[in-house]
Specification:
182 residues; alpha/beta; Rossmann fold; three-stranded antiparallel sheet; 24% helix; binds inosinic acid
């Protein structure tokens, strides 16, 4: 059932489930015999992370980082570190898990920041890519879906901390955020 604030379901529960399983298989092949640290960017990537790791067949080590640049539906362009990792990543294989890449500012900042800590390798996995919105070029190693430039919620993605628990990814009706931004 579609929530009344959603104009269109972009990706169904089944489409996401199948794609996440395939991503998991690919990542498992690439990291066999390795012990990477998966860094989940809070909070949007936690639903994706929790499904993805159940398709990984190597020993999984998790850590979390929190960054912020968004106010409502707009990126402020200034990325801030809100909460840092607990583990050291020196000499480790690192895989960043992110919900969505839009302008690329958040992931560029994160990659630059983590590279200063001398990991052995660093790759990026995103569920969603709004390719046409890129302001900073960034190499994405694993992509779930390329999507159009529409504000999406569900499956971990929020608007003002809401809608993260929707089991699908949907386009939020602009009337919902315009009502609040006025
Ligand atoms: P970027 O820095 O512009 O690439 O944006 C990345 C971050 O913006 C993601 O981690 C999300 O938190 C947020 N974001 C970008 N687009 C959307 C969207 O359509 N829905 C929800 N969050 C989004």
């Amino acid at each position: 059932m579609k929530h009344s604030d959603i104009s269109e379901i972009l990706l169904t529960k089944t489409e996401i489930k199948n794609r996440v399983a395939r991503l998991g298989e690919k990542i498992s092949q690439d990291y066999k015999d390795k012990k990477p640290i998966l860094i989940s960017v809070l909070k949007g990537s936690v639903v994706f992370l929790s499904d993805l790791i159940r398709h990984l067949n190597f020993p999984v080590i998790l850590d979390f980082i929190s960054l912020s640049s968004y106010t409502s539906t707009q990126s402020s362009g200034v990325v801030r570190l809100i909460m840092d990792l607990r583990e050291s990543i020196v000499g480790k294989d690192v895989l960043i898990i992110e919900d969505i890449v839009d302008t690329g500012l958040t992931l560029s900042y994160l990659k630059r920041n983590l590279m200063t800590r001398n990991p052995k390798s660093l790759k990026i996995c995103v569920l969603l890519d709004k390719k046409e919105c890129r302001k900073k070029p960034i190499k994405i190693d694993y992509t779930g879906f390329v999507i159009p430039n529409k504000f999406c919620v569900g499956y971990g993605l929020d608007w003002n901390q809401l809608y993260r628990n929707l089991p699908y990814i949907g386009i939020l009706k602009p009337s919902v955020y315009r009502r609040r931004e006025r």
